Structures are given as C-alpha cells and as structure tokens.
C-alpha cells in the first residue's frame, strides 16, 4: 500500500465507524474513541491481509484487537462495551462475499455461490472467534486483578 | 440454620422489583447483551441489600424474584437499536450504587426514559448511513466515481428501512424492501451511466443495514451461557441477512428476466 492509500483507508475507516455509530445512536462522547478503534481494527486486518495471511486469519486478529481495545475503552470511559465493539466491527463484515453468493445464486451458478457462502460464513466465524478470545483475555484479567487484590 | 431476615418492607420490595425490571426492559429492548443486563440488575438489587436476587432474562421477557416477595414478569414486545439508552441506564445504576440517587428517583428517571420518544434525528441517521456506504465502497476497492451514487443510494435505502420500520410492525419486511430499493437504484444508476459497477454500489449501500448488534451480542450471550438468548439472536441476525439477500436476488433476477 502506498502512503496515499493508507491515508485514505485510515480516514475512511474512521468515517465508516462513526457513520455506523450514528445510526445506532451512540452517545456523543463515545464517538471519537469508537472511530479510533474502528481504524485500529481495519488497519490490523489490512496489515495481516497484505502479509498473505488470508482473509479469515486477518479477520480473526482484527476482531481480537477490536475486542481488547473495546474492553479497555469501556473500562476507562465507564460505559458498556457494546458501544465500542459493534460499530468498529462493521468494516470487517463479509458483505462482499455475501453479495457474491447472492449474485451467483440468482444466476444459478450454485458452485460459485456456495464457495462465496462458505467464505462469508468462515469470516463471520473468525470474527466471532476473535471476540471469544478477547472475552477470554478479559476474564483472565479479572481473575488476575482479583487474586492480587486479596 | 434460620434464613437471614430481609429488611425490606412490602412497598419497597415492590418498588425495587419494578425498578429493576424496568431497567432490564429498557436495556434488552435497545440491544444490550444478556451478561451486562444480568450484571446491572443484580447490582441494583444488591445495592438495595438483597443478596440473593433470582433473575431470568431472555430477549422477549424478564422474570425476577427476591426473597419474601412475589416474583414479577416483564414482557418485551419490541426490539430496536438505541445504544445511548443502554449507556443512560448504566449511568443511573452507577449513580445509585454511589448513593447519589435513591430508589424512587431512579424509578422516576427510568420511567421517563422508557416513555420518551427516541431522539433520533433522522437527518443524522441518513447522513451516517450514507457515509458508511460510501466509505466502505472505497475501502472494498470500488472506484472513486461510484462514491457519490453509493452515498445517495445507501442514504435512500436507510430512509426506506427507517420509514417502514417505524410505520409497520412486520419484522424483516423493512430490510427486504430496502434491499429491493437499493438494488433497483444501483442497476438504474449504472444503466444511465451515473455509476460504473453496480456490484460495488450494492455492497456499499447494504452495509448500513447489516445486523451488527444481534451478531455481536449473539457471540457474547452464547459464551456467557445465555444459550436461549444467544440462539434467538443468531436466528434474528440470519433472518435479517436472508431478507437483505432475498431483496438483492429478486432485483438481479427480474432485471435479467426483463432483459434491461
């Protein structure tokens, strides 16, 4: 990626996250942090994707990053985590794959359609797994911080 | 061993049940995950010196009982997404924990919050949806000349979704019709040479309608052991996705059939 392309991706992922956050009616003081987490998630995805890790692994790592930073933001801002991780996730949703699956189903090319459907399902699963890992890490954090308090 | 005597009077117990259930109703109605609802409701009860509240919540209703009182049920008929209200319930529950407000004040606050019309400023929602569509179209590798058509079509699609959702009570019809409108507009835009690639325009324009909240919450619910709510949300997200896909598929199919 050239510097110009990277800048476009950073600015646009920020705008996309904030745009989706507005449609979910997120409190104004959470908007900026939301956008920053969205940029982090999307750039993580892009970097891993350009390292030829494949879409699925890149999505997993990006979801993990979003989950961890959303947890930190929720802790610092004392707000529910759902405010931060839902808008940030939007650029990673496999909309392109889902569209192509629908496209090929509509034109009776079932083989291609199933290929894209499986790809979309795998990316969605990877996003879920990324959140799962982030959740596990936060649980560990709670255990760790509690055992040190006592 | 004799059970520890609870200190709440009947009136206070009723008020506590009502307040807690109302808080839960607002949170679930507006898209909170069950672990958070559970946590918040238990906190409210525990801050009122009830150590063993029993709360059972699903996406369509909550049941709660505290020792020495009749259990109460609250049904949840509608679901929408308004994350600001979840944050507001969160804040008032924190204020209650810090003893800045008492139970009666919290009950009043929640009642007003529940009754108040959602302060959706439609123009902002539409602008937000347009921004999502246009920016994602570029991020997914679309051309710059499709930026403006995608912005307009995704804004229009979101408006259709919003208008149908607020007027009719049929779930998933709004997604389907919005997808129809988006598909038709994208194909016409390309036909009249206002856009280049209808595929990229459609992908971008559909993105503001993806079921992000049910999907994210489904994962968290399933992991937290709320199997019932989790699977309900998986189904909700799948149905939304299928409605969107059906809309697009219909347009593509009839477009080909019509030979346009």
UniProtKB/TrEMBL annotation, chain B:
PANTHER family with a match to the protein in the record: SUCCINATE TRANSPORTER SUBUNIT YJJP-RELATED, UPF0442 PROTEIN YJJB-RELATED
UniProt membrane topology term: Multi-pass membrane protein
Compartment(s): Cell membrane
A Pfam cross-reference name: ThrE
Transmembrane portions of the chain: 122-141, 147-164, 176-192, 198-216, 237-255
Highest taxon listed in the record's lineage: Bacteria
Domain named Threonine/serine exporter-like N-terminal: residues: 20-254
Keywords: Cell membrane, Membrane, Transmembrane, Transmembrane helix
Family: Belongs to the ThrE exporter (TC 2.A.79) family.
InterPro entries per record: ThrE-like_N, ThrE_Dicarb/AminoAcid_Exp
Record's protein name: Threonine/serine exporter family protein
């Amino acid at each position: 990626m050239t510097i110009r392309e990277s800048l476009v991706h950073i600015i646009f992922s920020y705008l996309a996250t904030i745009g989706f956050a507005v449609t979910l009616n997120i409190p104004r003081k959470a908007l900026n942090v939301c956008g920053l987490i969205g940029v982090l998630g999307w750039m993580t995805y892009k970097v891993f994707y350009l390292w030829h890790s494949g879409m699925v692994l890149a999505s997993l790592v990006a979801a993990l990053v979003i989950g961890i930073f959303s947890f930190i933001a929720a802790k610092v801002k004392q707000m529910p985590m759902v405010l931060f991780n839902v808008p940030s996730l939007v650029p990673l949703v496999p909309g392109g794959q889902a569209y192509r699956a629908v496209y090929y189903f509509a034109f009776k090319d079932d083989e291609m359609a199933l290929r894209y459907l499986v790809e979309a399902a795998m990316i969605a699963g990877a996003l879920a797994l990324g959140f799962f890992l982030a959740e596990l890490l936060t649980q560990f954090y709670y255990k760790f911080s509690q055992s040190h308090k006592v | 061993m004799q059970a520890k005597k609870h200190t709440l009077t009947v009136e206070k117990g009723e008020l506590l049940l009502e307040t807690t259930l109302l808080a839960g109703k607002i949170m679930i109605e507006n898209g909170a995950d069950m672990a958070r609802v559970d946590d918040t409701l238990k906190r409210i009860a525990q801050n009122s010196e009830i150590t063993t509240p029993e709360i059972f919540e699903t996406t369509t209703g909550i049941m709660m009982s505290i020792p020495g009182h009749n259990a109460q049920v609250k049904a949840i008929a509608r679901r929408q997404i308004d994350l600001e209200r979840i944050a507001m319930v969160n804040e008032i529950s924190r204020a209650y924990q810090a003893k800045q407000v008492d139970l009666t004040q919290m009950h009043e606050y929640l009642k007003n919050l529940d009754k108040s019309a959602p302060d959706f400023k439609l123009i902002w929602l539409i602008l937000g949806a347009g921004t999502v569509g246009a920016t994602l179209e570029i991020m997914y590798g679309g051309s710059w000349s499709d930026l403006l058509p995608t912005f307009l079509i995704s804004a229009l699609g979101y408006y259709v979704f919003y208008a149908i959702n607020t007027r009719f009570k049929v779930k998933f019809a709004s997604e389907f019709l919005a997808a129809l409108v988006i598909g038709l507009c994208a194909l016409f835009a390309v036909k009249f040479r206002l856009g280049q690639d209808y595929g990229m325009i459609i992908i971008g324009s559909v993105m503001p309608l993806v079921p992000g909240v049910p999907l994210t919450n489904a994962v968290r619910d399933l992991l937290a052991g709320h199997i019932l709510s989790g699977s309900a949300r998986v189904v909700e997200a799948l149905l939304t996705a299928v409605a969107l896909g059906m809309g697009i598929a219909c347009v593509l199919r009839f477009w080909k059939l019509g030979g346009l």
